[in-house]
TrEMBL record:
InterPro entries: PtdIno-glycan_biosynth_class_S. Residues 13-25 have a biased composition (Low complexity). Keywords: Endoplasmic reticulum, Glycoprotein, GPI-anchor biosynthesis, Membrane, Transmembrane, Transmembrane helix. PANTHER family: GPI TRANSAMIDASE COMPONENT PIG-S (PTHR21072). Pfam families: PIG-S. This is GPI transamidase component PIG-S. The lineage of its organism: Eukaryota, Fungi, Dikarya, Ascomycota, Pezizomycotina. The chain crosses the membrane at residues 71-89, 528-547. Residues 1-62, 153-178 are annotated as: Disordered.
Length: 564
């Protein structure tokens, strides 16, 4: 091949400089690439272009579409705000009835009622004329008023006409009086006044010497001072019990700060007050005899009179049982104080529980040879009182299989005495006076308990704003306050005790209302944990849609500002 031919092929295969360089203009040019071209180190510049996009930009959104989308979002929010939230608020809101909190706290702090007993005392002086009797009454009243403070009692004396006849009961004609003081002149051998109390009537007998006989012109008398001192001693135990209840209550008073330890120990043995008690009399024996007992006749003869006297204060229901082959918890012949707690075999002895919701007092007679060893000086005993439970009597085995009512006399009399102690009856004075004192101190106890419950309920409602207070609680509080006012106005009477009992019952029911106590176990953290999984799927789309629409509105506004 000739050299001219080779040169022409070479020239034909090598592109010209104009062909090797391509310049692209316009929007399709993206980049320029330079490559070496041949051994002569010539460079070739190549422009790389991208193809045109296949998608066209969306057309401008119409105003009607924008308005429709905004209207849809607004409708959802209006539905939630105007319908959803009110329904949720109504169905989940906690109802709180209106309570008289200030009045409740006044009762709890002792500002609404001061427990002071207006005690009326009649002075009988058969041997004195009307002016002399009135004179000794006035002087004694002045002596009482000038004595050191005697809080809780307001003793008011009045002169009473003499009894019509010797056989008339001293209390006749003085049913409204707590005590009758009968003044009797003594003989010439009497040098100082002497007092004594009746065992079955509320009468204080005072025998004075003739030299102390009062006159109408007397302005001071040693007899009046003696009568005043005897009256204060008569009501001293009642005053101590009232002070004990005040000191152990929520009512703070500078006058009732001290607590007598023996009295406190005695009061802790007594049962909490109840309008009705259930009495269970049980006969337990370790063998097959005795198998029967005349308990009904024994109760009617020896205990029924005491129950009848307690009738204005308490009601009683009674049942009896006999249990053979009962094994005591302690087998020793002489029981010590440490053995008494284990003597009652509660696992095998079928002691009756509370019936009808009333507290039960158990009176157990165990037939056996066991005794209670106290110490060498006092010897042994056959009964003991179990605080707030009942009484146990160890009876010697009878000779027959039937226990007669006469054989049960001493156990039943012991049970009657223990019953009075378990009910919190005072120990001094005649039985009618002790029972009237029991009614007064129990009315104070119920009044303080009801006031304390009202104060606790008021503090609870203030401390827990989210707690439910149903209307039944408000009704119970209103009834309790109403009966408290009646009890305070009639303080010292049997009616006061009944009103105080109703007030205490209503206050306790209001404080322990089931629907209200259940709210204590649902704090705010629990509510958040319940609502958050429910509100998340609903709230997120609503909030995100509102934010998106707000951003689009803001962008349209900026674009309109630029174009204008």
């Amino acid at each position: 091949m000739s050299s001219s031919t080779i040169r022409s092929r070479k020239d034909a295969s090598a592109p010209s400089e104009a062909e090797a360089t391509t310049t692209a203009t316009g929007p399709e040019r993206d980049a320029t690439v330079t490559k070496p071209n041949g051994p002569e180190s010539a460079t070739t510049t190549t422009t790389v272009t991208k193809p045109k996009s296949k998608f066209k930009p969306p057309p401008p959104e119409q105003d009607s579409h924008i308005f429709r989308r905004s209207l849809i979002i607004a409708s959802f929010w209006l539905l939630v705000l105007c319908l959803g939230i009110p329904i949720w608020w109504k169905t989940t809101s906690i109802y709180r009835a209106s309570l008289p909190l200030n009045q409740m706290m006044d009762w709890a702090n002792g500002k609404a009622c001061s427990p002071v007993f207006p005690i009326r005392i009649a002075i009988e002086a058969p041997d004195l004329n009307g002016q002399e009797a009135q004179s000794i009454t006035s002087i004694t009243q002045y002596a009482l008023d000038t004595m050191p403070d005697f809080p809780g009692h307001r003793l008011r004396l009045e002169a009473a006409p003499p009894t019509p006849s010797e056989g008339t009961s001293p209390s006749n004609g003085h049913d409204d009086n707590a005590l009758v003081v009968r003044l009797t002149p003594g003989d010439a051998a009497t040098s100082a006044p002497v007092s004594s109390t009746h065992s079955h009537v509320p009468v204080l007998e005072i025998t004075y010497p003739p030299s102390m006989r009062p006159t109408a012109e007397t302005t001071s008398s040693g007899l009046a001072t003696y009568i005043a001192a005897q009256l204060r001693d008569t009501f001293a135990e009642e005053q101590a019990i009232t002070s004990y209840f005040l000191a152990t209550s929520t009512i703070s008073s500078d006058q009732h700060t001290g607590i007598d330890e023996p009295l406190a120990k005695r009061m802790t043995r007594s049962m909490k007050y109840s309008g009705t008690y259930h009495l269970t009399f049980s006969l337990f024996t370790s063998g097959s005899t005795p198998s029967s007992w005349d308990i009904d006749s024994a109760i009617d003869q020896y205990m029924r009179p005491v129950l009848d006297l307690l009738q204005p204060i308490h009601n009683f229901t009674i049942d009896t049982q006999v249990q053979l082959y009962a094994v005591p918890g302690v087998q020793s012949q002489s029981l010590t104080k440490e053995d008494l707690a284990s003597f009652i075999n509660a696992a095998e002895w079928p002691l009756s529980p509370s019936i009808g919701g009333a507290p039960t007092l158990n009176f157990v007679i165990f037939v056996g040879d066991q005794t209670i060893g106290l110490n060498s000086e006092e010897g042994t005993s056959r009964s003991w009182l179990a605080p707030q439970w009942g009484s146990v009597y160890l009876l010697s085995p009878p000779t027959t299989s039937h226990v007669s009512s006469e054989f049960l006399k001493q156990p039943i009399l012991t049970f009657a005495s223990h019953l009075l102690s378990l009910l919190g009856t005072p120990q001094s004075g005649s039985l009618p006076m002790r029972l009237s004192t029991l009614a007064r101190v129990r009315s104070v106890d119920m009044l303080l308990r009801a006031s304390s419950s009202l104060g606790s309920l008021a503090r609870l409602s203030l401390a827990l704003p989210s707690i439910s207070i149903p209307s039944s609680v408000a009704d119970g509080v209103a009834k309790s306050i109403h009966h408290l006012e009646l009890a305070c106005s009639k303080l010292g009477s049997t009616e006061s005790l009944e009103h105080a009992r109703i007030a205490e019952t209503e206050a306790e029911q209001a404080f322990f209302e089931k629907s209200m106590v259940g709210q204590l176990y649902f704090p705010d953290e629990h509510k958040v944990a319940v609502y958050l999984p429910l509100l998340g799927p609903v709230g997120v789309p609503l909030v995100m849609g509102l934010l998106t629409e707000f951003k689009a509105w803001k962008a349209r506004r900026q674009l309109k500002a630029k174009t204008s």
